[in-house]
Amino acid sequence: MNLPDKEFIASFDIDAQNTFTPVCPDELPVVEGDTIADELNAQATFASLRVASRDAHTCQALWLSDEEHPPLSPISGYPDLDIRWPAHAIIGTKGFDFIAGLDPKAYDFQVFKGIEVDKHPYGACYHDLKNTLSTGVIEYLKLHGITTVICGGLATDYCVKNTVLQLRQAGFEVILNKAGCRGIALDTIAAAMAEMEAAGVHFVDCAAALK
Asked: N or C: which end of the chain has fewer CB within 10 A?
């Protein structure tokens, strides 16, 4: 696709945090998740605004797994919780921090998601699983006249996919920088890519391809 003028483009770093990298092996590490900073910084050069999302969890979260409730076991009784997860991205820990190479001060807008004990969203545009409680990022982008969003982050098959689909549903043109993402498993990555393609998402192999 042909890029619009820079003033209409935003770059979105989705959950590019240590918690999703080998830097935090006991949380939710994604292979090579700590290697995407250069690509995220490169894609940002094509944009007038740079936004980011971060998982921002509490150690009192109701979705935390334990010996009695292992990871991925289902949760009932809470509309914004689906399954259990190991502790990750707890505010104040290394896992919450951006990966090395990303400057927290470089962002015009940041989303903290999953702060509430009874919510564990995946996409960065809404606090709830039904996409009704806005985080404000869609409104922020529209307020500034953004029409196209270049996305990268962690992980391709979960938070990246959900955020991208939310942005498409909100009417933005979305470009996924494949080199700026890492995913968990080949089959779920492939399924996520197919779902995003069906929604009209554009793909580039790396930020340099945006020129």
From this structure: C
